[in-house]
Amino acid sequence: GLGIAIVQKLLGMMNSKLDVESVYGVGSVFSFKVNQKIIDNNPIGNYSEHQTKRLEKNPSNKYLTAHGAKVLAVDDNNMNLKVISGLLKRNEIFPDLAESGAQCIELARKNFYHIIFLDNMMPVMNGVETLKRMQRENILSDKTAVIMLTASAMAGMKEIYLREGFNDYLSKPIDVAELELMLEKHLPPEIVSFKVEGEKNISEIEIDAGEINTETGLEYSAGMLDLYKDILITFANSKGEKQSRLQESFEAADWKNYTVYIHALKSNAQSIGAEKLSNAAKELELAGKKITAENISEREKNSAVEYIKNNQAAVMKMFDKIADAAKQVAENLDA
Questions:
Q1: Strands 193-196 and 168-171
Q2: Three-state SS for 73?
Q3: Which of 87, 47, 120 is nearest to 227 (CA)?
Q4: Which residues contact 87 (CB under 8 A, 6 or more apart)?
Q5: Which long-range contacts (CB under 8 A, 24 or more apart) does 316-319 make?
Q6: Cα–Cα nearest to 291, from 280, 304, 281, 282
Q7: What digits encode the pLDDT tens for the residues 15-62?
Q8: Taking a C-beta distance cutoff of 8 angstroms, is the pair 153, 267 a contact?
Q9: Does the pLDDT of residue 182 top 60, yes or no?
């Protein structure tokens, strides 16, 4: 895909190049050399020892609370909104929710927010366009941090979004530790405190998950079984609507919106631990991005269209299977 082109450009910026050794039928080796200055000759020390001390200092059951924090979460995907609002509940934060850039702007006009978590890949008006409009209309307070919330976790994306005017970047599915670092960094220190909760015994829960990695799903739900169950049910119940949107944009060859919708499926599937479905959706998303990208040859675009046409039905069938499995897992959580 685009990986090698990106690597070549980065290496060129560092006065290096990509070397390739390839043997037909055996494989290829890609390598490079980069000259770097030594900043400090002192040893960095024993990493394992430092990591152990850090964990002792910050136990995993310690969490941040910020009662009174004003937070807005913006995402066109209702499941993503359910996830972030569920995670923030533990932090004693009850965010306002918006499903579009237009709703975000309307709420930001009426209310002050310490933090706005703003998704980028939304139809009609994406996150970057939404931020630019709020800046042009001088809607935002200088005490408001706007954090890009996106499943596009490629290297260098954070720097791109910072240049666009965002204050920070948080990738999806949301890592609880990263979320709390954002809260601690951008909320006024006077409303931030910390609590220690009792140990969870979730490792003893045995679930016949089939295609769903429940351990991963529980991690993305901060170990909160009620939240994980809610997300699973939402995933299953929203299948019909999401499949209809995908199929309609697929049949209309509306690749821009198709890419937005398949991007959401990739993120949602990963949130519940459906890694196989998430990876399949990711490949369709990459193909969609090629079709809508500039400076891509017609041959590459046609190839990407064919890839989507050849795989759309199989991914939707997989979606059916995972939605059924999600219902079963949710029922097992009640048992």
A1: unpaired
A2: strand
A3: 87
A4: 174, 176, 179, 221, 222, 227
A5: 316/243, 316/246, 316/247, 318/276, 318/277, 318/280, 319/239, 319/242, 319/243, 319/265, 319/277
A6: 304
A7: 999 999 888 877 889 999 998 888 777 766 665 555 455 445 444 567
A8: no
A9: yes
Q: Are the CB atoms for 233 and 330 separated by under 8 Å?
A: yes
Query: What is the maximum span of the chain, computed from C-alpha positions, in angstroms?
Result: 63
The 3-state DSSP class for residue 217 equals: helix
Q: Read out DSSP for 192-203?
A: -EEEEPPPP-GG
Among residues 30, 13, 12, the alpha carbon closest in space to that of 21 is found at 30
pTM over 0.70: no
For residue 287 the two structure tokens come to 């193909």
**Which of 295, 264, 309, 297 lies closest to 282, judged by CA?**
264
For the stretch 120-169, pLDDT in tens is 989 899 999 999 999 999 999 999 999 999 876 566 777 888 999 999 99
